[in-house]
Structure formats: C-alpha cells, structure tokens
C-alpha cells in the first residue's frame, strides 16, 4: 500500500492512488489531516487546472507547500480532483 512519509510521520496511505506524471495522488480521505495546514499558494497546470497547496507540519517542523491538490480540475484530470500529491522531500513508498 503506498504511503507518503516525511519527518518520520505517515502523511497519507491508500491502495486507491492515481499516478500522474510520476506523482502518486492520494485520495483526500486517506491523508492524516493533523499534519496539513492550508497554504495561500496556487499554481496553474495547463491540462489539470489550478492547484492549491498544503504546508506539512510534523513535530513543529514545517515543510512549506509540500503537498498539492486540484479542488477543481479540467476534464482530462477529473480522476485526480481533490487527490493530494507530494514533493519537497516527502517520500512515497509504493
């Protein structure tokens, strides 16, 4: 079962991930919300849409904008709507 781990904490775990462009996208209900803080950061992908970000906080350490998701997607990306992906040192064990 794929897991997203940072600073020793399991951030997300699910058998229902979607892999897009080499990134594992975890269903929103599989994330451990205690580690996620909303961010004001947004970026745009030409085919997925507008991305929103979370800052990850584990044991007082912050990893700014280390997770992203698409609250609204363009049609080709509907299968990852609200799914959460990671970067910035977050390890995904598949």
TrEMBL record:
<dbReference type="Pfam" id="PF04248">
    <property type="entry name" value="NTP_transf_9"/>
</dbReference>
<protein>
    <recommendedName>
        <fullName>DUF427 domain-containing protein</fullName>
    </recommendedName>
</protein>
<dbReference type="InterPro" id="IPR038694">
    <property type="entry name" value="DUF427_sf"/>
</dbReference>
<dbReference type="InterPro" id="IPR007361">
    <property type="entry name" value="DUF427"/>
</dbReference>
<feature type="domain" description="DUF427">
    <location>
        <begin position="3"/>
        <end position="88"/>
    </location>
</feature>
